[in-house]
Amino acid sequence: MKKNRRDFFKTVGIGAAGLGLSSFSQVTMVSEKMISDDQQLVVGDDIAIAQTQYGKVQGFILRGIFQFRGIPYGADTSGKNRFMPPQKPRPWKETYPAVWWGNTAPQIMDNRYANNFASFVDHWNYDDVSEDCLRLNVWTPAIKDSKKRPVLVWLHGGGYTNGNGYEQDGYDGENFCRKGDVVFCSINHRLGPIGFSDLSVSGDAKYADSGNVGALDMVAALEWVRDNIAEFGGDPGNVTIMGQSGGGAKVCTLTAMKKAKGLFHKAVPLSGSTLAGKDQKVSKKLGQYIIEEAGLQASEVDKLQELSWREYIDIANKASRRYMEENPGGNSFRGGFGPVADGRNLPLESFYSDVKGLSSDVPMLISTTFHEWSMSRNNAELEAITKENAIAFLTERAGFSGGLGDKAEPVYNAYEKVFPKAKPIEIMTLIVSNRKSAIETANAKASQDAPVYMAWFGWEPPMFNNRMRAFHCLDICFWFNNTDRMFTHTGGGSRPRELSDKMSQTLIRFMKNGNPNGGGLPEWPRYTPEKGATMVLNDTSVVKNDPDREARKLLE
User: Fold this and answer.
1) Is residue 219 located within the same domain as residue 284?
2) CA-CA-CA-CA torsion for 50, 229, 485, 69, nearest 10 degrees?
């Protein structure tokens, strides 16, 4: 994603007792005797103990699925480790209590719950914020059983600025693991200025990777999976990386990192993608601004490691605002921090430009939602907008970019032709939520050998007077069989569950063999730029060949 999703919501006025069962110490799967109808949680001193390369970890068993929360995969990133590539965690002697989520990466938490309706619908989960944040979570049906289960590694959304590995209940891996006999992991990593400040401009060689340390954290987490996941019943030779929004962009970024080669084998970006890192000319200039805003010389850059994380983020954000003010129209930056095309960690050229290049053997499943930026979700007045007013709105503003100007009316008419039954608010939202970036990614990746599959999620929840529509984040709980867990997104019940059953089974099939077919959806052909085969996901799913092509072309 080019911009934090929560910022967009604000723009349009919407928020975004131990049981001491020593005889259980060598048991790796849960028997019927251990979980009765009235006991769902099993936890104790000798229960759910797994060995990692750094020491033992203790989790718990909930409804037959093992959970390990907040396992360290890297060292504390504060102090001298700030802006540096991730370091290995220090081994521990005592069993590590992996029963609670790890710290959220440093980010601005002010007014995170300012909108009551947004808090109700999304109920973001956040805990302590700290630079000691390199933690991951594992859900698995069994440990120590030598069974090689497919592994999914989830990369959270929030752009490169916000979020954590369990920010929404829809990220929970319990149901998905049980259904597919797979292993589910999610991670926290450095974000924003802490994770992506390019201070190489200082001339100090040790800061050469500073613009990409947040991405290198993700590589470190995948290395941990490679080295440890077999203990948790997973197959390090069959790993799928998946993310949504900013997490989708992270998926694409990892496919372009040489250091990540061989650490994953399938890729699934949802509602977010990217084809390049940030221009290093821009990132270095911003790095210089940061040093100046801190009142330092380049030779004093080490002093930035001595500040509190909040002091540093405030300085970096001030430098970011200065950059945007002094460089209007700087589309290569767009006011955010993210991975840098430094030629060391990320290539200078566009991703997938080499037909036989990096990740050419990695199948990819790409999906977006119809109404990513559902402007009317908590704004009833927009439901009554007229076609004329919708066109006027699009003339001045069209999502994260500027307005469409004179193209607003022909673009509107083109989308109206594709969706003749849609209301003006729906046409406007479809345009703002267009698939242009996703199609660009699909076209580029399709030039390589491994197959690409494209989906478009259009299911709408029957809540808030039907204003929510197929909004950004809605589809996540469908892929993970969590529609009854994330009921404030779906309403719960049989209708969303039926689609979720097919989508989650389809994802499991893709994880196992790189092909989504056989999960209950219609036959799904691989994507080609010529036909643009797209699985339209809804109560009744259907494959259509690039249904919005002619309308979308006008946006180019």
Assistant:
1) no
2) 50
Give the Cα separation of 272 and 11 in Å (integer).
19
Note the pLDDT tens digit of each residue in 192-228.
999 999 999 999 999 999 999 999 999 999 999 999 9
DSSP bridge partners of 153: 185, 241
Answer yes or no: do 298 and 244 share one domain. Answer: no
Q: What is the DSSP letter of 106?
A: S
Same domain, 155 and 221: yes
Residue 246 has pLDDT above 90, yes or no: yes
**Domains contained in the chain, number:** 4
Strand partners, 305: none
**Dihedral sign from CA coordinates of 80, 84, 87, 92:** positive
Q: Which helix (H) or strand (E) holds 367?
A: strand 364-369
Task: Summarize the chain as % helix, strand, coil (round to 5).
Answer: 35, 15, 50
Residue 45 sits in a domain of what CATH number? Answer: 3.40.50.1820
Helices (H) and strands (E) counted in the chain, each on its own, are: 16, 19
For residues 155 and 169, membership in a common domain is answered with: yes
**C-alpha span between 466 and 17 (Å, rounded):** 44
pLDDT bucket at 34, cuts 50 / 70 / 90 = low
351 domain-assigned: no
Determine, yes or no, domain membership for 350: no
Q: Which domain holds residue 57?
A: 5-200+208-270
d(CA 422, CA 57): 53
Considering the chain, what is the average pLDDT of its residues? 91
240 beta partners = 152, 266
Q: Is the pLDDT of residue 433 over 90?
A: yes
Strand order through the sheet with 65-72: 41-42, 60-62, 65-72, 135-140, 183-187, 149-155, 234-244, 266-270, 364-369, 452-457, 533-537, 542-545
Asked if 266 and 297 sit in the same domain, the reply is no
Q: Are strands 340-341 and 278-279 parallel, antiparallel or unpaired?
A: parallel
